[in-house]
Records
---
Amino acid sequence: MMEDRRNWAGNYTYGAARVHRPATIAQVQEIVAGCRKVRALGSRHSFNAIADTPGDLLSLERLDRVVALDRARRTVTVEAGVRYGPLCRWLHREGFALHNLASLPHISVAGACATATHGSGDRNGNLATAVAAIELVTAAGEAVTLSRDCHGAEFLGAIVGLGGLGVVTRLTLDLVPAFAMRQDVYEDLSLEGWRPTSTPS
Ligand SMILES: Cc1cc2nc3c(=O)[nH]c(=O)nc-3n(C[C@H](O)[C@H](O)[C@H](O)COP(=O)(O)OP(=O)(O)OC[C@H]3O[C@@H](n4cnc5c(N)ncnc54)[C@H](O)[C@@H]3O)c2cc1C
C-alpha cells in the first residue's frame, strides 16, 4: 500500500493498489513477470496521471547507485532511481558534469528522461539527449539493453518511453568536464529606461 498516495505537488492522488520497491534488477524482473499490470514510478513529480495505473506501481528508489564512470568515453552509468542532486555532487567531485539540468535537483534520472524533461538554454538538448544507453525490463520480465551506438532508431524511439515500453533499470549518460556557474540577481530595478527588445508591428 502507498503511505502517501499523492504526487509531489499534492494535486494528484494515485489509484494503484500497491507499490513495489525492489532492491535488485532480478527482483524487478520477478515483479514485472508476476504482475498483470505494472508501471514504473519515478520521483512522483509529474503533475498528471502519467505514472499511475489500475495495476501495481514499481518504484526504483532503492536502486540509486552510480554503477560505473568511464573517464575515457566521458559517460556515467547509473541505476534508474538516482536523483540528479546527489548524482551531480558526485560527478563534480570526479571532475565531470551533465550538460543540462531541470529546475529541481530531486527528480529521478529515469523519470526525467522518460518524459523528455527540458533544462534551460535554447541551444542545449533536453535531459534525454544525454542518454547513451538504457537497460530495461520488458513486460515478459526480460532484461534488454539498447544503445545509441548499436540500436539507432530503435534506441532513439525508446528513450522517451513515458513508462510504456518497460521499466528502465539503468541509464548511461554523456558527461562534460566540470564547470562553474554564477548567478546574478538584480533586485529593485527601475522600469525607467527599459524598452522591449522587439516592438510588435
Ligand atoms: C515544481 C516542478 C518543477 C518542474 N520543473 C521542470 C523543469 O524545469 N523542466 C521540465 O521539463 N519538467 C519540469 N517538471 C516536470 C517534472 O520534472 C517531470 O515530469 C519529471 O522529471 C518526471 O520525473 P519523475 O522521476 O518525477 O517521474 P514520475 O512523475 O514519477 O513519472 C513520469 C513518467 O516516467 C515514467 N518512469 C519513471 N521512472 C521510470 C523508469 N524507471 N522506467 C520507465 N519509465 C519510468 C513513469 O512511468 C511516468 O510515465 C517540474 C515538475 C514540478 C512539480
Note: The first helix runs from residue 25 to 34.
---
Amino acid sequence: MSKTIIVTGRGGTGKTTFAVLAARVLPSPKLMIDADPDQCLGVMLGVDLAENGVHTVSEALYEIQEGRVDQELKAMPLAQKVEYLLNLSCLYESSEFDLLTLGVKWTRGCYCAPNDILRGLIPRIVDNYELAIFDSPAGLEHLNRRVLTEADDVFAVVDPSAKALRNVKVVQEMAGSIGIRFENLYLVANHRFPEQQLDRLNEIEGAVYLGQIAPDPAVEEADWEGRSFLDLPPDSPACLSVAGILRRAGYQPAQ
Ligand SMILES: Nc1ncnc2c1ncn2[C@@H]1O[C@H](COP(=O)(O)OP(=O)(O)OP(=O)(O)O)[C@@H](O)[C@H]1O
Ligand SMILES: [Mg+2]
C-alpha cells in the first residue's frame, strides 16, 4: 500500500525543509513531487534538473503545445503524449528518491485539458511508489489546481501566528468544498514556535498536533551554502525531531 503525504503551510514556515527531512529519514522507494513554481525542492534535495536533462511538467506541456515533440509522438492523443513525456523527460530518478517537478502554473492556451490529464496521471505515477511526498507552495491556490485530490496525511507546518492557525481552518474548509480527501491532518510547529505557545496547537479541532521541528543551525548552513539537506547527519536536531513527528504519525523512520 502506498502512502501519500502533502506538506502545506504559509510562506517560509519550513515546508520544504520538512519534506526533505522526511525523505531523509523514511525508507525508499519514494517519489518527491514539487508543486512550488519556485522549484526549491530539487535544490534542497541536491538535484540540478537542467544538468540532468530533466524537464518540469510545465516545460513538457509547453513543448507539446508548440508542437516541438518527436514525429512519432505527434500523432498520439494529448493524454498519451503527456504521459509519455512525463515518464520520459520529467522524472528525475536516483537510488534514494525520484523527483517530479510541476513548474510554473500552466496558463497558455486551454490549460484545463493538461490539468485534467495531470489529475488522472499523477495518482497513477504515485501508485508506483511506497511513499509520495508532495511539497506545496505557500498559500492555498495550489489546492485549486487539484492535481492531487487524495492523500493519506496532510502535514501543516505552522509558524507562531494567529494567521497560521486560521490558515489550518481554511485548509480544512477548502479541502471539503473542492473535494480533496485526506485521512489525517497533522500539525507541526515550525522551528520558530515558542515553547510556551505550543499548547495552542492542541486546541485545533479536526487536527492532531505531533511536535515541533527543532531549530538547527546545520539546516541554515546547508541552506546558505546550497547543499543538499539529505546530507544532514541523522542525529542532527532537525532530523531527529522530524523522525519523532513521523513516528507519531505511524511511519517508520530509519533512526
Ligand atoms: N529546523 C530549522 N532550523 C533552522 N532553520 C530552518 C529550519 N527549517 C527551516 N529553516 C529555514 O527557514 C527558511 C524557510 O524554510 P523552507 O524553505 O523549508 O520554508 P518553506 O515553507 O518551504 O518556504 P516557501 O513558502 O518559500 O516554500 C529557510 O531559510 C530554512 O533554512
Ligand atoms: Mg518551500
Note: The chain has a mean pLDDT of 89.
---
Amino acid sequence: MIVAGDALTSKHARYVLTPWMAQGNLKPPVIVRGEGIYLYDADGNRYADLTSGLIAVNLGHGHPAVRAAMHEQVDRLCFSPPSWFNDARAELGEALVRLAPWGDEGGRVFFSTSGAAANEDAIKFARAVTGRSKVLTGYRSFHGSGAGSATLTGENRRWYNEPNNVMPGVVHFWAPYPYRSPFFTQDPAEETRRALQHAADTVAAENPDHVAAILIEPVIGSNGVIVFPPGYLAGLRVLCDAHGIVLIFDEVMTGFGRTGAAFGGERFGVVPDMLTFAKGVTSGYVPLGGVLLREKYARAFDEKPLPAGHTYSGHPLAMATGIATLQAYRDAGLYERAADGIEPRLRAGLERVRDKHEIVGEVRGVGAFFALEFVSDRATREPLVPWQGKSLGVMPTLFAGLKKRGAYAFGRYNVLHVAPPLIITDEQIDEAVATIDAAVGELEEAYATARG
Ligand SMILES: Cc1ncc(COP(=O)(O)O)c(C=O)c1O
C-alpha cells in the first residue's frame, strides 16, 4: 500500500539495510512506480533515470511486452527444478547463444542469478577446463560483492573482504586509462603498447602455465566508463592465445546494447572464450545472470560434472522475462539506436557541458555509456575529490542538483555516469543534457565557494 513518502522513508530506514552506505540519515526518494525513462516517488515526483537503475534497465521501465510475458509465465509455471529441462530455459539459451560471438562454433549458457555469481562460476569453469589456478583481473575493476567476486574486484569494494580474500590465486594488473595513464603516456597507441607489455610481464611473472584466465570488463564500468585505446583488447586476445589462457569478458554492464552492440566485445571486434552477463538480459526486471561459454569449453563438461549450480539457475520467470527482453531489443533496433542515435547526440551534448564548465576534465564513453570526470584543475587533471578517498567533498551537490531538477544518476568519487535507457528519445537526451549542465554549474559554484 502506498502511504505518504515520509512514513515510508522512516519505515525503510528502520527495517532495511541499504547497500554500501552508512545507514544513518539516509533520505532518498521512495520509488513506487516506473514508466519509460522515468521513476516516480511516493510523493508523486518524477525523475528521469539517467543511469538505467544501475545500468540495467536498458529497455526503460515497465515495457508492456515484457510485462505481458512475465504475467503469462506467472500464470503457467513459477518454478522448475534446475536439473530437469524447461521450455523457456531452452528458448532463452538458444537466443543468447545466437547473440554470442562464436558463430558456427556455437556455445552454451549456464544461468546464475547475478553478475557476481556469474563471474565466480566462470572462474570455476576456466579453472576446470585448463587445470590451472591463477586468475588475472584489472585494478579499478568491479566484478561483484560476493566473497569470491569481491576478491576478483580491483578497487576499494574489495577491501571489505580483506585480509581474508577467499578466492586464492587472484592477481591484479593495470589496464589502460588514457586520461590518467598508469603507464605515464599521453598517446593512446603508446598506452596500448605499454599496457600490453605490462599484462605480458604479469603473466610471465606468475608463470603462464599456472594462469587459467584473464577476466576484464571490455569497457570499465562503475569505475568510470574507461574505454580502452584501440588494440588493447585485441592484444589481450593474442596474449591469451599464446599461453592457452581463457579470456573472459565481464559483460554484466556492457551487455545488451549498452556499448551500441549486443556485447562490448563485438563493438571492439574481439571475441572472448567466455562472457558473463546479468543486468540488461532482463532489463533488470528480475534477477538473472549467467556465463556464455564457447562450444570448445562447454563440451569439456559432457563427461565430467559441471562444477556449479544454484536453486534459481534458469528460473522460469527470469527465462520468460529474458526472452521477451531480447525480443524487445530486436524489435526496436535498440543496439543500433545506441550506436547511431544516442552515442553521437549524447556525446555532443556532454561535450558542450565540458566546454562550458572548467570543472569537467573529461567526457568519455561509447554507445549509451558515458561519464564525466571532474577535476579541480584542468591542466594538472587533479581529481575534484580523491578516488577511493574518505571524503566526497562537494560532489553530493551534483547529485542533489540532479534530484532537485527531476533526474537520477549515480557516480563514484569524481565521476558522474550517464547511461540512460536505450529507449530515450532525442528530445529526452537534450533535456537530460540541460539538466546535467545546470547541476554541473551548481557543483562548480559550490566548489568555488568551498575553495574560498
Ligand atoms: C562489470 C560488473 N560485473 C559484475 C557486477 C556484479 O553484478 P551483481 O550486482 O548482479 O552481482 C557488476 C555490478 O554492477 C558489474 O558492473
Note: The chain has a mean pLDDT of 97.
---
Amino acid sequence: MKCVICKYGETQPGTANITLERGGAMMMIRDVPGEICDTCGETYHSEEVTSILLKEAEQAYRSGIDIEVRHYRKAA
Ligand SMILES: [Zn+2]
C-alpha cells in the first residue's frame, strides 16, 4: 500500500523494532511483523499485532520494569 506519512513510498512486508514508553519505563519489542515504507521507514501494524504489543507492554509495566527488551511472539 502507499505510505500515508510521506505519500511517496510503497510499504513492503518486513519486521521492525518497536519502542513503547510509559511513565519513564521503556520497552522495546524486536522483530515485530508489519509493513514498512521503503522511503521514510514508517511502520504499519495490523490491529492484531497492535493489540499483542499493547498486552505485552501492559504486562511488562505491571511487573515494574525500567527498560526491557523482548522478542515479538504471537498471542501468548
Ligand atoms: Zn513513507
Note: The chain has a mean pLDDT of 92.
